[in-house]
Structure to design on (460 residues):
């Protein structure tokens, strides 16, 4: 195989052969389901015109632009990014800024997945897997940190809860439903071992949410509210450290000791899928180019996330929707649309292991990494954030985990299972749509819109 002369940029003529020695098959096994799901939204770049550019540096720059910006089916959504910046600069409607920022986050999340995959060609499958695990939910993590900086603890809790519910019920449900319809004459099967690992980790995370909640109800009348809150906060911070330790153990389990459990999804490859993987077998951009693009896109995600956090209340007032509904339902659906679409596409191809890896893997990562990390970050910056998500939200989380676990217990799937999961998500969405219960003081923001009366369209 040819060697790469320039680690910061790969010319088009070298793409066919320029891959680090011995990484091709090994790297493919180092891919996460998140990466393979996102790859379904990529398109092959036509570099014939760029190859005619005489200047090598300009050729590499244009090649990178072609691969990174135009190498996705979501390219048109990039237009929302400058529109959001212009709307903010000229002080247009803040709900417009919120909407454009939310749409702009969709292609950025998919491109971050692409760039981490490109970097994995140079770092190897293990480091690449760690990079994917860290950046897999970068959007949620950045929004959470910025919301904490604005002392909007409720937005953090609601958005992270919404991401878990969305992955467990909406993404998985739509994948099972579409896969069942597309393969209605044959039974779809998947490997339960990977799902079992994710579920007992999700149940451990649920325990860490339940105990601070139960502590509040277990306290006697002699205990003051401040004492209960102090105990809940201390327990939450301790539990968060334990959750992060569990997540590190999960990464070791997934990337080193039991990697074969997470590779079962590639055992029954067909020719069509082989064609897709072949495109991803060689890097299309250099290491330093990929690193620079990843850093730049992370900054853009941070900018749009700042807009989202700053304008969410104004969007709530303008649209007549509560902040809880926007955070739990709209943010996860729009922000992770690319990943969700990829999971559904693979379910259509009867590759449920990949779809399950996307949905359950993302839910586990948010539950055991993003949530406890948010608590630790809040602790560091002096914000009091605990793991008590209130009884309604925690109950929704518990039932979502239990229902999904029962759905996947026999290792088979059909469209009815997916339909039930989606309907459960609709019921939860309706619950938060009509929810007008005033939130406790100290949540950092107003949770109901000013112009809301009753339960919206369905109120009497």
């Amino acid at each position: 195989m040819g060697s790469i002369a320039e680690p910061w940029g790969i010319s088009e003529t070298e793409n066919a052969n320029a891959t680090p020695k011995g990484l091709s098959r090994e790297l493919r096994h180092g891919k996460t389901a998140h990466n393979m799901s996102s790859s379904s939204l990529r398109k092959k770049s036509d570099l014939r015109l760029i190859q005619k550019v005489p200047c090598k540096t300009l050729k590499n720059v244009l090649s990178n632009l072609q691969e990174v910006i135009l190498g996705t089916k979501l390219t048109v959504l990039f237009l929302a990014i400058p529109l959001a910046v212009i709307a903010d600069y000229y002080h247009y409607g803040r709900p417009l800024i919120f909407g454009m920022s939310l749409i702009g986050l969709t292609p950025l999340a998919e491109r971050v997945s692409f760039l981490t995959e490109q970097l994995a060609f140079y770092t190897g499958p293990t480091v690449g897997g760690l990079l994917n695990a860290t950046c897999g939910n970068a959007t949620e993590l950045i929004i959470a940190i910025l919301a904490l900086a604005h002392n909007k603890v409720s937005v953090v809790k609601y958005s992270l809860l919404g991401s878990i519910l969305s992955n467990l019920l909406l993404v998985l449900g739509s994948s099972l439903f579409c896969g069942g319809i597309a393969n209605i004459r044959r039974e779809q099967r998947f490997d339960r071992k990977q799902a079992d690992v994710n579920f007992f980790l999700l149940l451990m995370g649920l325990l860490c949410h339940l105990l601070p909640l139960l502590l509040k109800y277990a306290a006697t009348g002699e205990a003051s509210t401040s004492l209960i809150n102090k105990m809940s906060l201390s327990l939450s911070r301790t539990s968060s450290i334990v959750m992060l330790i569990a997540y590190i153990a999960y990464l070791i389990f997934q990337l080193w000791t039991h990697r074969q459990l997470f590779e079962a999804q590639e055992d029954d490859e067909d020719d069509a899928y082989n064609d897709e993987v072949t495109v991803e077998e060689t890097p299309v951009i250099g290491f330093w180019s990929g690193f620079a693009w990843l850093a730049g896109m992370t900054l853009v995600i941070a900018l749009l996330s700042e807009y989202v956090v700053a304008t969410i209340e104004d969007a709530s007032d303008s649209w007549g929707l509560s902040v809880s509904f926007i955070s739990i339902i709209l943010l996860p659906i729009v922000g992770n649309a690319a990943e969700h679409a990829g999971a559904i596409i693979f379910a259509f191809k009867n590759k449920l292991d990949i779809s399950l890896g996307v949905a359950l893997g993302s839910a586990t990562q948010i539950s055991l990494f993003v949530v406890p990390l948010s608590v630790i970050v809040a602790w560091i910056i002096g914000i009091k954030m605990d793991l008590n998500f209130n009884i309604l939200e925690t109950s929704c989380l518990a039932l979502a985990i239990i229902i999904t676990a029962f759905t996947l217990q026999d290792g088979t799937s059909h469209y009815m299972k997916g339909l039930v999961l989606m309907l459960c998500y609709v019921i939860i969405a309706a619950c938060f749509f009509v929810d007008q219960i005033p939130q406790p003081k100290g949540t950092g923001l107003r949770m109901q819109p000013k112009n809301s009366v009753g339960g919206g369209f369905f109120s009497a």
